[in-house]
Design brief:
Layout (H helix, E strand, L loop, with lengths): L11 H6 L1 H7 L19 H5 L3 H9 L10 H14 L3 H13 L7 H18 L8 H15 L3 H17 L1 H21 L3 H14 L7 H22 L2 H15 L8 H19 L6 H16 L6 H20 L5 H16 L6 H21 L4 H16 L6 H21 L4 H16 L6 H21 L4 H16 L6 H21 L4 H16 L6 H21 L4 H16 L6 H21 L4 H16 L6 H20 L5 H16 L6 H21 L4 H16 L6 H23 L1
């Protein structure tokens, strides 16, 4: 009974099977949400300025040069900006200095320049003399106007500070004027993108106002401006503490904006509170903030009705959809995702293509995101097909000429949906379409223009290429996938975006592990282990518990593959520890299918340990783990994963059977393999079909050794021959040799039986 060898690629499918866990939890594919509205319509700022982002970026880089040293094209750009933004040359140069100092990304330059220009023009009119100014203050206000006219905002702030000091001396008489001045300083800070300074000034303005009823509404306006500045600091600069403060301010304001007295203002504040809660909730591992966001948006809709303010109602419905989708992505069920779809479709009833085409396209994009997430939870493809249709609808208005970066975002999301569809199909057409969509997105999402978006799409492109690579016998697409992930990491650095960096490290580890499975050495597997451990350095259990569990599971896969190549058990023991760590967070209640995947992989590691040991304890544990996995990995729910675990269960039972005198375990193994082959068909997954045929051959061969006659051995020969039809020397040399050796042993046994 010695010399019975199961296909050592038994673990090979393991990487393939954990795709859903790695893809969903590791963040290999990430849909992007557009169209979140706090107030007003979102417009494409590049169209408004008339200047492409790359020209603005070039001008910002050259901002310190004298005008005479600029190129003719750059001078023309300044002239155009003066005309479009209604600023003089000094103000233009000041605005360029501001955005350059704050390192605003190229894709946001146009919007920020418009914002700064608006503040300049507001400051021109708001810095005139006020009732009660004495002659000295009047002269200082003229200095402010001169400073603003010359673009010297620092000087304007300095002079305003002098005015503030004089007005504080007569606070009782001039308190309102002083508050207005401090508020102007807040607006100057907003123009300079100093959001925390702005928040401080607006709050101080509110505190300066005398405690009289006629000024209470103005005080609330200042406090609302403070909350908005804090939100922008948190949203734009990743400052979670600022988002927490914004949420606190919005909640405090709701105590003053009474629903029965000012229902629409109350609703607007609920909407803004929901937006801040959603932004923070998207960064946290729990769901409490997202649930609060949903409640806030629903409260807003109680007053922001469709009949009363149809477009505001639609904007809040869109925002509600975004919060519900984020909430649904954290849960194993589909209820919140279904609600998100309803919210988006409600928004589209007013956000029509004829009325607000770009907002309509933004909501179509968001609807596609929700449908895509739903589609990943279901065995069919109907939702994914709907998602593809929604993205393609969005692209009818989000054209490359009109809104190039939004077009690229939706191309990226379309690629995500096509990639998920591709994983459900036996061919490669959808995966190839996904690759084309990602490459289209990269035509506008360039590294210079939008470095982090470029990195996100490179990451997603790597996932699609990996998906193609696992369907093929060669390594070309796998090598391309590794190159894409490494490209993404050039911009997705640990210092800059630690969790995205960790996600891509995990994805890179999976691609390297798959490459390592195709090769005889261990170099790529060692690299995979290093990548997973790097990911765990930032994707910690406290910070992102489910992603941590996913990475632990994938680390276990790589360690197990290494253990297969070695004679000892150290790496296999480490793999068992990694899987058990994953199960501590990836529980059956929270993520049932991922739990089943990890149980399957744990069973495989225990099986391999049991092979190396003399007893049966590890093998019995492996069988128990596989059977646990099958409680969630049902045939109707995830047929391919069910088949894989049936295959693995058969292998563990076969090995147990070789250590026992009877044939019961071996008969169970044959049944498990034949069950697996009902879904692991040759036309659908040829290499996996061949693996199970090989393993079926092994169980039949051992049965044949235990029984008289040649029937079982002849069945084993048929199974090995079937495996070799796909395990060619060119396509899978290592697996070919194993199956060929087993076939030769069967022939020898048959010859002995026939002679006797």
């Amino acid at each position: 009974m010695r010399g019975h060898r199961f296909l050592s690629a038994f673990i090979g499918v393991l990487f393939f099977s954990s795709n859903s866990f790695a893809q969903v939890r590791q963040g290999q594919v990430k849909a992007e949400t557009g169209g979140v509205a706090i107030g007003g319509d979102v417009r494409d700022s590049t169209i408004i300025t008339g200047v492409p982002a790359e020209k603005l970026d070039e001008l910002v880089r050259e901002r310190t040069k004298p005008l005479e040293d600029l190129s003719a094209s750059q001078k023309e750009t300044i002239v155009l900006l003066k005309e479009k933004l209604d600023l003089n040359e000094r103000q233009i140069r000041a605005a360029l200095e501001i955005v350059g100092e704050k390192n605003i990304p190229p894709e946001r330059l146009a919007a920020k320049l418009i914002e700064i220009a608006q503040k300049f023009n507001e400051l021109k009119s708001s810095s005139t003399a006020q009732l009660g100014d004495d002659a000295e203050v009047g002269n200082l206000r003229k200095e402010v106007q001169v400073a603003i006219g010359s673009g010297d905002l620092a000087r304007a702030d300095s002079v305003l500070a002098q005015i503030e000091k004089k007005q504080r001396a007569a606070l009782d008489r001039l308190a309102s004027n002083a508050a207005a001045t401090v508020s102007r300083r807040g607006e100057v800070a907003l123009a300079r993108l100093h959001y925390l300074d702005a928040a401080k000034q607006f709050r101080e303005a509110a505190q300066l106002l005398p405690q009289t009823d006629d000024l209470s509404q103005l005080r609330l306006v200042y406090l609302a401006q403070e909350a908005e500045a804090l939100y922008r600091q948190g949203d734009e600069f990743g400052d979670n503490a600022a988002l927490v403060s914004a949420i606190d301010r919005h909640k405090a304001l709701l105590l003053h904006y009474m629903r029965d007295r000012t229902p629409l203002k109350w609703a607007a504040m609920q909407n803004d509170l929901g937006t801040a809660l959603k932004a923070l909730g998207a960064r946290e591992s729990g769901t409490a903030r997202l649930e609060e966001a949903v409640a806030a948006f629903r409260a807003a809709l109680a007053e922001r009705t469709r009949d009363r303010v149809p477009l505001d109602w639609a904007a809040t419905q869109n925002n509600l959809g975004n919060a519900l989708r984020a909430l649904g992505a954290r849960e194993s069920g589909a209820a919140h995702l279904e609600e998100a779809v309803v919210a988006y479709r409600a928004a589209l009833a007013e956000r029509t293509r004829d009325r607000v085409p770009l907002d309509w396209a933004a909501t179509q994009n968001n609807l596609g995101n929700a449908l895509q997430t739903l589609g990943t939870r279901e065995s069919g493809t109907a939702r994914l097909e709907e998602a593809v249709a929604a993205y393609r609808a969005a692209l009818a208005e989000r054209t490359r000429d009109r809104a190039p970066l939004d077009w690229a975002m939706t191309q990226n999301n379309l690629g995500n949906a096509l990639q998920t569809l591709g994983t459900r199909e036996s061919g490669t057409a959808r995966l190839e379409e996904a690759v084309a969509a990602y490459r289209a997105a990269l035509a506008e999402r360039t590294r210079d223009r939008a470095p982090l978006d470029w990195a996100a799409t490179q990451n997603n492109l790597g996932s699609a290429l990996w998906g193609l690579g696992v369907r093929e016998s060669g390594t070309v697409h796998l090598q391309e996938a590794v190159a894409s992930y490494r490209a993404a990491l050039v911009e997705r650095t640990r210092d800059r975006v630690p969790l995205d960096w960790a996600s891509t490290q995990g994805s890179l580890g999976t691609a390297l592990a798959t490459l390592g499975e195709r090769e005889s050495g261990t170099a790529h597997l060692e690299e995979a282990v290093a990548a997973y451990r790097a990911a765990l350095a930032e994707g910690t259990r406290d910070r992102v518990p489910l992603e941590w569990a996913s990475t632990q599971s994938n680390l276990g896969n790589a360690l197990q593959a290494l253990g297969e190549r070695e004679s000892g058990t150290a790496h296999l023991e480490e793999a068992v520890a990694a899987y058990r760590a994953a199960l501590a967070e990836g529980t059956r209640d929270r993520v049932p299918l991922e739990w089943a995947s990890t149980q399957n992989n744990l069973g495989t590691a225990l099986f391999r340990l049991g092979e190396r040991e003399g007893g049966k304890a590890r093998l019995e544990e492996g069988v128990a783990a596989f059977r646990a996995a099958l409680e969630e990995r049902t045939r109707d729910r995830v047929p391919r994963q069910w088949a894989m675990t049936q295959n693995n269960l058969g292998t563990a039972l076969t090995t147990l059977g070789t250590r026992e005198s009877g044939t019961a375990r071996l008969e169970e193994a044959v049944t498990a393999y034949r069950g697996a082959l009902e879904e692991r068909t040759r036309d659908r997954v040829p290499l996996e079909w061949a693996m199970t045929q090989n393993n079926l051959g092994t169980a039949l061969k051992v049965l044949g050794e235990r029984e008289g006659g040649t029937a079982r051995l002849e069945q084993a020969v048929a199974a090995y021959r079937a495996a070799l039809e796909e395990f060619t020397r060119e396509a899978a040399p290592r697996w070919h040799d194993i199956a060929q050796q087993s076939l030769s042993q069967c022939f020898a046994l048959l010859e002995q039986r026939r002679k006797s």
